[in-house]
Amino acid sequence: MLESPPSNSRGAHLKNLNFTSQRTLFILLLIIAACSLFIWYKSFMTQVPFFRVVVPVSVAMPALRPVVFNLTEFGGVGDGVKVNTEAFERGVIAISKLAKNGGGQLYVPAGVWLTAPFNLTSHMTLFLAQDAVILGIQDEKYWPLLPPLPSYGRGREHRGARYGSLIHGQHLKDVVITGHNGTIDGQGHSWWKKYRQKLLNHTRGPLVQIMWSRDILISNITLRNSPFWTLHPYDCKNVTIRNMTILAPISKAPNTDGIDPDSCENMIIEDSYISVGDDAIAIKSGWDQYGISYGRPSKNILIRNLVVRSMVSAGISIGSEMSGGVSNVTVENVLVWNSRRAVRIKTAVGRGGYVRHITYRNLTFENVRVGIVIKTDYNEHPNKNFDPKAIPILQDISYSSIHGEGVRVPVRIYGSQDIPVRNVSFHDMSVGITYKKKHIFQCAYVQGRVIGSIFPAPCENLDLYDEQQRLIKKSVYQNISDIDYAF
């Protein structure tokens, strides 16, 4: 015979049911609140000028290669006299045969290793010991000629073919160039002199150029005296560049950019020092009609923790060759010192493409002529066949936590009637100026906002908001021009 549960047990059972219902209701309320918060956040992010940028994942250091070769095993002699091109080539061939088993490392010991250009292979580590110097041979007859880059249609300096790089790679995967701060030296002085004297018939070659490749790590080495651009990743994915020193003379070393990501995706540049004869970093994606046709943007790029200098050009540039588009770029924790310009975006009618979703934060300018630059009349073209109706789009660009001293013109944003600059924002800016004239925050054809109080006083093109994002004063005329190139 079954006994009925006592009355107090039934009450407890009902109480448990009531508690379960309350808990279910509480969870449902939490879910609704979270969804509401997400919808609000998404709406908020479309209105305020701080943009969500996809941060690329750093390329992990691969496991140690199962096989290590010493360059001397292939006949290398590090006396600075013997040409070691064949030794490097034999080492690369030996490693290429190990691809299915994890690849191999080519160890370059201390010494000066003179060489003509050579190619890398997949699943390879090029390791430079402390006091190891790979030295580029100066005679251009040893430098191979390559077809023009498809997104440029010609050599950057001359029509037709271009010289290859000292260290080169195409269609590679899993490549590491690293070491104990060894050096790759392009001996660019002779190239720069011939360029200035107009004795070259082809565009000079970069120091290191990796093309159509993925999973690349370059770290802990010094690159110096490149004939042309120093480090040029072209149409690559998943690239990490860190702990680098990149050097060239700050004058009379033309076009020796430090790092030029070109149509690259998912890239980190961090923890490095760059002082060169042109832009320290220049993000690119093709030139006019050729870049538009090639159609490979540079996107998802993180640049952080750098000290850079450029007496001739800019610390960090985007363009001017940006016809495939540039988006989702974050530049943070950067000191630009003793430079002509700090951060610059440059383009022109005929480029097409876009520059959008660009975030600059925590930048310091020290002794810089012009701090922030957006320029829309950089009229260098590969030929006369560019499309004058190809108008680039510049929008969604934010500057926050910008500080410094010794700056002549803190901001010069030169939009135009054809290329207006849209949705630019400034927040938390205080830059010590060396010029006391009126026009030190210069604007033309600019739409955007200033959030909170900044110094120096912004141009009249921008709307003013308080720290709580409440409109204080709306710009009357965004197309007003306040540009003064006299200083």
UniProtKB/TrEMBL annotation:
Keyword Transmembrane helix: yes
Superkingdom to which the source organism belongs: Eukaryota
Keywords in alphabetical order: Glycosidase, Hydrolase, Membrane, Transmembrane, Transmembrane helix
Transmembrane segments: 24-41
GO-annotated biological processes: carbohydrate metabolic process
UniProt cross-references to InterPro entries, sorted A to Z: GH28_Enzymes (IPR051801), Glyco_hydro_28 (IPR000743), PbH1 (IPR006626), Pectin_lyas_fold (IPR012334), Pectin_lyase_fold/virulence (IPR011050)
GO molecular function list: polygalacturonase activity
Pfam family of the protein (one): Glyco_hydro_28
Name used for this protein in its record: Polygalacturonase
Species of the source: Heracleum sosnowskyi
